C-alpha cells in the first residue's frame, strides 16, 4: 500500500454528518462536532468514526464510546502462518489488468484526491497493485490496518459528487441493504465517475462478521443499472 496517508485536509472538505447530513463540522484533536445536530464523532488510529446513531451496523460493529474496539492480536505462530499461507483468492491476469486500466485512466483523479477504496487493500494483490498509485481514501468497517473513515456503506458520510473513482472488493455480500449502498455510491460520485466492484458468487459462508447475500454476474450488473450506472465491462475476477 502507498506509504503516504490520504490527506486529512482533503477528507475534512468532503465530509458530512451521517445523522443530520449537515456539512457544518468543527474539527478538533479528539475528532469533530456537528454544529447542526451537536453530535460528537471520535477519531481512532487517525481515522474518523462516522457511524450514525440509528445505523444497523452498530448491532455488530465493535464500537465502544464511538470508537472501534480493537481485536486481540492472535498468537505469534498463527500470525506467521497467516502471512506465509497461500492467498484465499487467485486473481486472473485479465482482472488485474482491468483494475490497473481503471487506475491508470483515473490517475489525474487520484492525484486530485478523488479516489476511494472500500473493503479491500489488505489482500496481497491489492497491496502490490496500489503501491504505485497515489493514496486512495480508505473507507470501511474494520479494526485492523489503516482506515481513514469508519462508516456504513448504506449511509456514506460524504458530500454529493465528492469522488470520481471508487474501488470495492468483497463488500456487498456483507451489506445489509445493497440497494441503498449502491444508491449511495452513485450519490457520492461526480457525473462520469467510475466504480470497480467485485463480489463473490461461489464462496463459503464467511462472517466478517455478517454475510448476507450473493449475486450472479448478471445480478450485480442489474443492481448497479437500477441505480443509474452504465455497465462498462464485467467478467470473472478470480477463481
Written description of the protein model:
The structure is a single chain. This protein is α/β, with parallel strands linked by helices and 239 residues long. 26% of the residues lie in helices and 21% in strands.
Architecture blueprint of SSEs:
Blueprint lengths: L7 H7 L10 E4 L2 E4 L5 E5 L2 E4 L12 E2 L2 E2 L7 H9 L8 H13 L1 H5 L3 E4 L5 H7 L6 E4 L8 E3 L11 E7 L8 H11 E10 L18 H9 L14
Parallel strand pairs: 4-9, 7-8, 7-10, 8-9, 10-11
Antiparallel strand pairs: 1-2, 2-3, 3-4, 5-6
Largest sheet: 9 strands, mixed
Spatial order of the strands forming the largest sheet: 1-2-3-4-9-8-7-10-11
Approximately what portion of the residues adopt beta-strand conformation?
A: 15-25%
- The helix count comes to 7
Structure class: alpha/beta
Low-confidence stretches: none
The percentage helix is 25-40%
How much is the radius of gyration in Å? 18 Å
- What overall form do the CA principal axes indicate? globular
Give the total of beta strands: 11
Overall pLDDT confidence: 86
First-last Cα distance: 24 Å
Along the chain, the helix and strand elements come as HEEEEEEHHHEHEEEHEH
